[in-house]
Design a protein that fits this description.
Blueprint: H1 2-28, E1 33-43, E2 48-49, E3 53-60, E4 63-70, E5 74-79, E6 82-87, E7 92-97, H2 117-124, E8 125-135, E9 138-147, E10 155-163, E11 169-176, E12 181-191, E13 209-213
Parallel strand pairs: 7-13
Antiparallel strand pairs: 1-2, 1-3, 1-12, 3-4, 4-5, 5-6, 6-7, 8-9, 9-10, 10-11, 11-12
């Protein structure tokens, strides 16, 4: 009986690694991506959640733009290993170096524009295979990641719901250290359509406050 249990764990680990490798290959061949997104932060311990944020996600290898349009505009651009978060309402721009899974306050998931995103995930987390399920009429494969002891990461747990046809995470959930959760869902996904280069530039007004964050903040 013990041998069967150990064998089932080994097979599940092999299956999750195979799926991650297929995702890695698919992302390596991905030239562009555009999708609608919904993002919500919830506090399960309190039974409440913030208003749902809606917008778009744009991706090219090495670049990403997450543009929230509702309920208020917020733009996150990741490019050349750096990020810029601009909030027009309060006229504030925060920038810094992308520090892998440990970047404070950032959860763009695997589509960070970083070629090392999968390596970071595998180095910083242990993976569990939750099997297949249906999500919004899509067949998805559910993988859960738990931070390894002593590794400084922003998301203590990550759940990926991977579309079996697209081999892309159409839902990503981050559980923070205080047990709050951020869930990002992608729909209307377009792959390899031309994207204007201007998407990955943000024009910051002269009067906006600029904050530069160091890696230890």
């Amino acid at each position: 009986m013990l041998i069967l249990v150990l064998l089932s764990f080994a097979l599940a680990a092999d299956a999750s690694q195979l799926l991650l490798e297929r995702m890695r290959t698919e992302q390596a061949n991905l030239r562009t991506l555009k999708a609608r997104l919904e993002q919500v932060k919830s506090y399960p311990q309190l039974g409440i959640e913030d208003p749902v944020e809606k917008g778009f996600l744009y991706f090219e290898p090495g670049k990403m733009r997450l543009e929230i349009q509702e309920p208020e505009v917020r733009i996150l651009v990741v490019k050349d290993g750096k990020y810029l978060l601009y909030q027009p309402r309060i006229r504030q721009a925060i920038s810094g170096k992308l520090e892998g899974q440990g970047t404070k306050g950032l959860f763009p998931g695997l589509l960070t524009g970083s070629p090392d995103s999968f390596r970071e995930l595998e180095k910083s987390y242990s993976v569990s295979d939750r099997g297949e399920e249906t999500l919004d009429e899509r067949r998805v494969h559910h993988l859960s990641f738990r931070a390894r002891p002593g590794v400084p990461v922003y998301c203590q747990e990550i759940d990926l719901f991977i579309d079996k046809t697209l081999l892309l995470p159409v839902r990503q959930k981050c559980r923070e250290g205080n047990q709050s959760e951020v869930t990002l869902t992608l729909t209307d996904i377009e792959r390899n359509a031309p994207l204007p280069k201007s998407l990955f530039e943000v024009q910051i007004p002269d009067r906006a406050e600029r904050i530069e964050r160091g890696g230890d903040e």
